[in-house]
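Z., the sequence and structure:
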Amino acid sequence: MTGHRVPEAEYLMSMPSRGGPPPQTPSRSRSRIRNLAALLLAGITLVLGYGVVESWRVRLERVVVRYQSLPPAARGLTILQISDLHSRANLRRNREVAEMLSGLSADLLVITGDFRQAGGSADVALQGASIVVDAVRGRMPVYAVSGNHDLQPMMGQLSQKGIVVLDNAAESIRPGVWLAGWNPYVRGHPSLDAVLGRVPNDSFVILLAHSPDVVLGSASARAGLILCGHTHGGQMRLPGCRPWLTLTRLGTKYFHGLYPWGAGFLHINPGIGTTMIPLRVYASPEITHLTLADAGQETAMGQ
């Protein structure tokens, strides 16, 4: 009797491979995919949770701006800077900022644009600004410039709430020290040269602008200190890395903090609020306290 013979191809497929892993069953593959999906979902949830928490934690950053030769009139000047409030209806961040400002002292407070949320309510922006200004009212003057999300009628109303709006204007804040503001978001705006042309040549100039791109104009070299916002510090980035996006022509190298620029300095505040995604990752909202100091004078006093 002839025994049943297994066809060669069928026989080879039924033999276990030598030296390699056993073939995966469909159920094992599906289990691995489910595990990877669960890990990915957990990671996304963790990042989102961290981003929400960080976006509500406003920090205070103290910065000493040291010059090799600072005019005596500007020495010791202290400035509080906030930017990009992007007020939302609950006004929670505005109240937190106001609470922090109520315990701080300075010669002046500057707000470098974007009171309003992108596409948001001007009324909410005005309410949010009022909450912030009330925290320092009577203790220091408040100056501001417009951001790219701010509306001109709204800025006019802000001036009635105790904010000096320096859109394309300049004002003396101390003998020999001038504060100037730049707003390129209105039609027919004057050149920065024209704005700074109103300032005496021997004065120390502090320039307010929403976007740090203001430094790309040669006229900005006139300023000893340029204060900006707009970048949100990148809003979402990896620790120790540059952000992916700053929405500036300067690129991602300049996104947050103090940078030497020309004969002076550029300071970029990361802002308070958020746009598009209400999250911040390694880009905490910040109130900056800046002190202008003369390095040579400090050295002499230390000897």
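The chain has one domain: 57-302. The helical segments are 8-14, 26-55, 92-101, 122-134, 152-158, 192-196, 295-302.

Let me know what you think.
H.
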